[in-house]
Design brief:
Its EC number is 3.2.2.21. Belongs to the DNA glycosylase MPG family. This is DNA-3-methyladenine glycosylase II. By secondary structure, this protein is of the alpha+beta class. Helix content is 15%, strand content 21%. The chain is built from six helices and ten strands, in the order E-E-H-H-E-E-H-E-E-E-H-H-E-E-H-E. The strands form two sheets. Strands 3, 4, 5, 6, 7, 8, 9 and 10 form an eight-stranded antiparallel beta sheet that branches. Strands 1-2 form a two-stranded antiparallel sheet. It binds a DNA duplex (12 and 12 nucleotides) through strand 5, strand 6 and helix 5.
Length: 266
DNA sequence: GAAAAGATTAAA
DNA sequence: TTAATCTTTTCC
């Protein structure tokens, strides 16, 4: 059917109600939350009290990464999502004392019937249309925080979903946030798990990833081989976009979400 | 103003 | 296979 005509990117007639933009800043010191209940997530808006936190000096682990893998600049992201997605593989996500290596991603693009930007600019999706290099975090199924990296230039509605990561440091914090004492792929294979491990809420949406503090993306080793496949969980989209091979993963990595049997060499 | 659906996960 | 859980978007 003809469902493809309204997907055009909207003009300025759309009103943009400003999303809640309380960008939380965290210092370079490592924060350890003593409160032990990873089950009930803290309600957005009530950031955990500063006084309840135990501040620990930055460890050598972070210094090593900052030295060898510097934070990526804004320029890195100003390309189309299909190019940015595979380039994000192997890069590092850093927040608090947690460092994750990106192992699986999906590209979402303009004129893409699976992209959140398909309805134009809204309060939720405004960051997607902003300049590349910012986070787009949204609540999925009322439960899961999904982290995207906004791609391309301002005005273009494109982003890359982070589907899976491998743990690099901060394993205890990851396990505590996940409520799971495992080192196996079940810990971080899935977009909801990544968001939970990083301690994200929708307040982190639109957070710049190219400036020090809070959530950052650091440079990392380029993977030797990459596999591609159709994106996951978008059955509502048009066949053309359901079948598009816009899912990318590091070949051979165990840190990849299901289904794995749809991934092939490009 | 009401209702359906969702870029998922964990447990039965 | 299904419940959990709630915001966003659409429909009347």
């Amino acid at each position: 059917m003809n469902k493809k005509k309204k997907i055009q990117q909207t003009d300025k007639s759309v009103k943009i109600t400003n999303p809640t933009k309380t960008i939380r800043k965290s210092s370079t010191t490592i924060k350890v939350k003593p409160q032990p209940k990873p089950k009930s997530r803290a309600k957005p808006g009530s950031s955990f009290q500063e006084k309840d936190e135990i501040l620990v000096p930055t460890t050598s682990v972070s210094s090593v990464f900052l030295e060898r893998f510097p934070i990526l600049s804004s320029d890195f992201y100003q390309i189309e999502a299909l190019d940015l997605a595979p380039r994000l593989l192997g890069k590092y996500l850093k927040k608090d004392d947690v460092v994750l290596q990106i192992t699986e991603v999906e590209a979402y693009r303009p004129n893409d019937s699976a992209c959140h930007g398909r309805f134009g600019i809204t309060a939720r999706t405004a960051p997607v249309f902003g300049p590349g290099g910012h986070a787009y975090v949204y609540l999925c199924y009322g439960l899961h925080m999904m982290l995207n990296v906004v791609a391309d230039k301002e005005g273009v509605g494109a982003a890359v979903l982070i589907r899976s990561c491998a743990p690099v440091s901060g394993l205890e914090t990851i396990q505590q946030r996940r409520g799971l004492k495992s080192e196996k792929p079940v810990l971080l294979t899935g977009p909801g798990k990544v968001g939970q491990a990083l301690g994200l809420s929708t307040e982190w949406s639109n957070h710049p990833l190219f400036t020090p503090g809070g959530l950052e993306v650091l440079d990392g080793p380029e993977p030797e081989k990459i596999v591609v496949g159709p994106r996951v969980g978008i059955e509502y989209a048009s066949p053309e976009h359901v079948n598009a091979l816009w899912r990318f993963a590091i070949a051979g990595s165990p840190w990849i979400s299901a289904p794995k049997n749809t991934l092939r060499p490009p």
